[in-house]
Every structure is written in C-alpha cells, then in structure tokens.
C-alpha cells in the first residue's frame, strides 16, 4: 500500500512543510505556514487542510540538536509541537536530526541564484524537504 509522509521544519515564526511521493522515495516542498508559538498559534488549521488533502500516514519533524548531539530548548519545542500534533490529528510523529539543514537549504538557494529577500520565502520549506528526504533515505533498504 502506498502512502505519503509529511515533513515539518518547526520554528517559532514559521513551519516549513514538505510531502513525500506515494512511494516514499522523494520529498517535495509544499509551503511555509506562519505561526506564533508564543501565542499558541501553531498553524494547525492549515495543517488540518493539508492532512485531509494529502492523507499522510505519519509526520517527520526536524529535531534541532547541538553539534555535540545534546538537545536544547528548540529540540524540546519541536517535541512539544509533535505531541500536540499527535493529540490533535492522531498521526504518529517521528523525529529526524536536522543539524545543518537550514544552512544546506540556504546554500542551495544561493547556488541557485535566489536573491536574499526571496530566500526568506523558501528556506523553511526547503529545510522541511531536506529533513524529510534525509528520513526517507535512512529508511531505504540497500
């Protein structure tokens, strides 16, 4: 049976969203959702629409670890977001190490000639693509 996987790059102001193809081989960018975690605005209304439309079997959330592999405040915030998402939508959530994905995303956009002001619009969803693609690649049997 084929199904999709949703990938999220969770920040305090935005959540980058990516989706896998039905075979679980590749990740594609979807959009960036504006959030305000301090006010409890988690973007779940828009996520509800995306989940209803795409019907993912699970969600992969980027886990921002320190370079020494420790987890800090942002990692806990990502775990809290994942718990709230599971509670709201009943989907299983898994975490993928996201160290350096934002820097990777920025490099891809710079190398692609994207102007600085335009990079801000794309960086979070591209980071979500990298998080999800790293997860998909880690699941492949060789």
Automatic annotation (TrEMBL):
<keyword id="KW-0690">Ribosome biogenesis</keyword>
<protein>
    <recommendedName>
        <fullName>Putative pre-16S rRNA nuclease</fullName>
        <ecNumber>3.1.-.-</ecNumber>
    </recommendedName>
</protein>
<dbReference type="InterPro" id="IPR012337">
    <property type="entry name" value="RNaseH-like_sf"/>
</dbReference>
<dbReference type="GO" id="GO:0016788">
    <property type="term" value="F:hydrolase activity, acting on ester bonds"/>
</dbReference>
<comment type="function">
    <text>Could be a nuclease involved in processing of the 5'-end of pre-16S rRNA.</text>
</comment>
<keyword id="KW-0378">Hydrolase</keyword>
<dbReference type="GO" id="GO:0004518">
    <property type="term" value="F:nuclease activity"/>
</dbReference>
<dbReference type="GO" id="GO:0000967">
    <property type="term" value="P:rRNA 5'-end processing"/>
</dbReference>
<comment type="similarity">
    <text>Belongs to the YqgF HJR family.</text>
</comment>
<dbReference type="InterPro" id="IPR005227">
    <property type="entry name" value="YqgF"/>
</dbReference>
<dbReference type="Pfam" id="PF03652">
    <property type="entry name" value="RuvX"/>
</dbReference>
<dbReference type="GO" id="GO:0005829">
    <property type="term" value="C:cytosol"/>
</dbReference>
<dbReference type="InterPro" id="IPR037027">
    <property type="entry name" value="YqgF/RNaseH-like_dom_sf"/>
</dbReference>
<dbReference type="InterPro" id="IPR006641">
    <property type="entry name" value="YqgF/RNaseH-like_dom"/>
</dbReference>
<keyword id="KW-0540">Nuclease</keyword>
<keyword id="KW-0963">Cytoplasm</keyword>
<feature type="domain" description="YqgF/RNase H-like">
    <location>
        <begin position="3"/>
        <end position="105"/>
    </location>
</feature>
């Amino acid at each position: 049976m084929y199904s999709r996987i949703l990938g999220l790059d969770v920040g305090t102001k935005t959540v980058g969203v990516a989706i896998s193809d039905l075979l679980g081989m590749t990740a594609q960018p979807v959009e960036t959702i504006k959030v305000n975690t301090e006010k409890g605005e988690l973007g779940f209304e828009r996520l509800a629409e995306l989940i209803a439309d795409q019907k993912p079997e699970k969600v992969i959330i980027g886990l921002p670890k320190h370079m020494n592999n420790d987890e800090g405040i942002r990692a806990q915030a990502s775990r809290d977001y994942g718990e709230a998402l599971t509670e709201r939508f009943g989907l299983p959530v898994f975490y993928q190490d996201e160290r350096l994905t934002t820097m990777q995303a920025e490099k891809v956009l710079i190398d692609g000639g994207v102007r600085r002001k335009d990079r801000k619009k794309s960086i979070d969803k591209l980071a979500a693509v990298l998080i999800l693609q790293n997860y998909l690649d880690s699941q492949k049997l060789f």
